[in-house]
């Protein structure tokens, strides 16, 4: 799940940093949450044309997601920024990377290795006339290969079967590669269920 709040070009992103620093830990033990990466993009940084707050979630259960969306957390965000469109995908695969268990030099996360500092996201359409099962197989194979890359904390593959769009989201111990279409700074990671997220293909 992800929502994107695009902010004015001259917006003080320190406001978002303070918000995350003071409110982010509230989800560190949220039931049903695998992980929430509090990520931002800043205009002129890592090729971003916008200022944006765009947290990304992996849920271990629909109950947890519903509890968040219909609870005080999302209500408060909507009151402050307006209700954003919330995108949801069906999870296809999840892998832990080398940085998941290795934390020297990095802030320690809540019980699961190094807290990542960066994230990347890419999306690809499954073209009409393409066998979607074959496209998903290829994407899952690439995810497995990516997970072995030094610096990867964890990586996920999901699909929107309405738009037939695959999304790849990866957390990085330090910096995301320059080739990633969307690169983010991770301000905080709430990950109460990260160690229990099912790895491999989810079918």
From TrEMBL:
It comes from the Bacteria. Residues 100-131 are annotated as: Disordered. Residues 113-128 have a biased composition (Low complexity). This is DUF4865 family protein. It comes from Sphaerisporangium corydalis.
């Amino acid at each position: 799940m992800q929502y994107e709040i695009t902010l004015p070009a001259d917006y003080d992103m320190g406001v978002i940093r303070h918000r995350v620093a003071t409110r982010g830990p509230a989800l560190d033990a949220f039931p049903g949450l695998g992980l929430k990466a509090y990520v931002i993009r800043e205009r002129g940084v890592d090729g971003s044309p916008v200022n944006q707050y765009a947290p990304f979630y992996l849920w271990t259960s629909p109950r947890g997601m519903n509890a968040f969306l219909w609870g005080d957390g999302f209500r408060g965000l909507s009151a402050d920024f307006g209700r954003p469109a919330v995108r949801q995908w069906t999870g296809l695969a999840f892998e832990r990377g080398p940085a998941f268990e290795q934390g020297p030099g990095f802030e320690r996360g809540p019980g699961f290795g190094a807290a990542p500092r960066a994230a990347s996201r890419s999306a690809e359409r499954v073209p009409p006339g393409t066998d979607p099962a074959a496209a998903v197989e290829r994407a899952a194979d690439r995810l497995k290969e990516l997970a072995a890359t030094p610096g990867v904390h964890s990586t996920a593959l999901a699909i929107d079967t309405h738009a037939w769009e695959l999304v790849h989201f990866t957390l990085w111990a330090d910096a995301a590669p320059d080739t990633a279409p969307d690169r983010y700074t991770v301000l905080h990671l709430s990950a109460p269920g990260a160690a229990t997220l099912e790895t491999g293909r989810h079918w």
